[in-house]
Amino acid sequence: RSSWLLLAPLLTPPVPVITAPPCSLCPEGAHRFQWIRNLVPEFGISSSHVKVLSSPAEFYELLKVQIKAAKQRVVMASLYLGTGLLEQELVYCLEETLEKSLQAKDSPDLRVSILLDYTRGSRGRKNSRTMLIPLLQRFPEQVRVSLFHTPNLRGLLRLLIPERFNETIGLQHIKVYLFDDNVILSGANLSDLYFTNRQDRYVLLRDSPEIADFFTELVDAIGDVSLQLQQDDTVQMMEGMVHPYQGDKVAYCEIANRRIMEVINSARTRQELLHAKTFHSSQTGSSLLSQQGSQASGSLKPEPDTWIYPLIQMKPFGIQIDEMVTETLLTEAERDARIYLTTGYFNLTQAYMDLILGTRAEYRILLASPEVNGFFGAKGVAGAIPAAYVYIEHQFYSEVCYLQQQERVQVQEYSRAGWTFHAKGLWLYLAGSDLPCLTLIGSPNFGYRSVHRDLEAQVAIVTENKALQQQLHQEQEQLYLCSGVVSTSTFEQPNRYVKLWVKLVTPLIKNFF
Q1: What's 147's domain CATH number?
Q2: Which of 454, 360, 477 is nearest to 408 (CA)?
Q3: What is the DSSP string of 6-74?
Q4: Distance of alpha carbon 228 from alpha carbon 358, whole angstroms
Q5: Helical H runs in 293-427?
Q6: Helix, strand or coil for residue 200?
Q7: The predicted structure's pLDDT at residue 63
Q8: Looking at the structure, do residues 242 and 337 belong to the same domain, yes or no?
Q9: pLDDT band at 9 (very low <50, low <70, confident <90, very high)
Q10: Whole-structure pTM value
């Protein structure tokens, strides 16, 4: 059974691409996930270039170090930039680096591109926009701030829905932080909680120019169809671009689809050509090396043992790559394989739920207990959101019990005093293996919003290297150590009481959070 055939009915209209020739260097089955490269570019790298981070503080310090060291580009995509002292420190780092770039005789060409969500980034009088305007004013030729506005928030809906609630319609949710050729993929936003006591996941891909180029082009493409922040805090579209909520919606979405798929397909073509070129040059490589001597051989890149696949999900634009790949991974997982799946907001799509309950692999699902949910203690209606998640979790667990799947599908709750939980992704352990060979890491939560409403991106990291597999395993263990297994008695505890109105409303609003 071919994984690729499973995807055929889901594919968007075909785009002409160059197909890689059969290659004995990487025969089919060298690793069983090569089918993903039929959809997206495949980046082969050395595992020594991958570092898994574990804490918010480590993430924050790395951001500052990378900003200060950047020479050519800083590209940051996030939901929003916070307004506290830690976020201000990041802005100061950017300002300092831009100033150095201007003064440097040899490299005054540093470019800073920041992509945020329009509604979240505009919330309140002091917001992401006011934090970044000084940079725009001081370095107008070097700094670009793009604010994505969903095309689904328009007309009367846009006028009537108040601030904060308007964010439920759709967001720019991608989190990627890129400095020259170093890329950080994460689910964390640029806010003080994510730098201190909100647990997330983070991976650094060092010295990876092709991957950095891809995400630069992706952020540029989304930026091109976004509102551009001006020095006077107004916004405007690029000349000739259809407006996301004032212009024709179908035309806007078609342009966005074309622009983003162009990035994906051109990168895929480049990587296929590079793969073919590497293979053909290796045919004569040994004889060339003997002629060129040890100096040339010392400059060669190590053989890749790790593969990175960027997975993009933008349903408003008709792009569903992440959904296709995730569903196929869940479908293809064999008996006795183990999948550790984690999300800060447990609200799986029906398709994901059916696959988990109807397939053969073992599942360990980690989610936030009510006390570490990001909405715990919030004012107004938002304060009831943790209870809504408890209700959704209880319904899922009841279905697991009804199907007598408690041994195969285990639910665990993350709990840690003084912390909140925002980690998302999965780790796949093949049958008989104690270490994972694949992880998904990035912004999606596996819920309705991630699949249908927001702009999302994550990467599949596939590795044959034991040391990197060990890093990923330790990351998983560290998160799951702070958890307890859910049982029927869990929902009998007083803090799990869900009011009747929450039970009645949750089915109506669950697609919005």
Answers
A1: 3.30.870.10
A2: 360
A3: HHGGGPPSP---PPPPP-SSS-TTSSTTGGGGGTS--EEE-GGGEEEE--HHHHHHHHHHHHHH-SSEE
A4: 46
A5: 294-298, 321-332, 350-358, 385-402
A6: coil
A7: 98
A8: no
A9: very low
A10: 0.90
Tell me the CA distances in angstroms from 137 to 90, 104, 114, 134, 268, one per residue in order.
17, 20, 15, 5, 37
CA distance 438 to 312: 17
DSSP string over 343-378:
ESS--B-HHHHHHHHHSSSEEEEEEE-GGGSTTTT-
Same domain, 259 and 309: no
- The pLDDT tens digits of the residues spanning 125-157 come to 999 999 999 999 999 999 999 999 999 999 999
Give residue 10's pLDDT band: very low, low, confident or very high (50, 70, 90): very low
Tell me: the pLDDT tens digits for 483-513? 999 999 999 998 889 999 998 999 888 888 7
Whether residue 203 is contained in a domain is answered as yes
User: Do 247 and 329 fall into the same domain?
Assistant: no
How far is the first Cα of the chain from the last one, in angstroms, to the nearest whole number? 36
Q: Name the phi and psi angles at 194, rounded to 5.
A: -75, -10
Token output for 251: 């035309």
Q: In terms of residue numbers, what domain contains 330?
A: 304-511
- Evaluate if residue 4 carries a pLDDT over 60: no
Of 297, 310, 305, 224, the C-alpha closest to 265 is 310
Total domain count, the chain? 2
The token pair at 131 is 């934090």
Percentages helix, strand, coil for the chain (3-state, rounded to 5) are 45, 20, 35
Q: Which residues are part of the catalytic machinery?
A: 173, 175, 180
